[in-house]
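Q: What would this chain look like folded?
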Amino acid sequence: MDGDAVFPIGEPARRTGLTVKAIRFCSDEGIVPPTGRGPAGYRLCGHDAVARLDHLRT
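A: My prediction, written as structure tokens:
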């Protein structure tokens, strides 16, 4: 697994069981900052963000 890989917000939602809306809330509040933005402005999340979201879910 590539440590530098980034995913659109739907992938972390599927991996963690959180809703996209919940991930956006966490991002907006600064709990889990997005790794970056895609060309169309979509939020991208890296492995660290996915791990943090999974921890928050528990």
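The chain has three helices and three strands.
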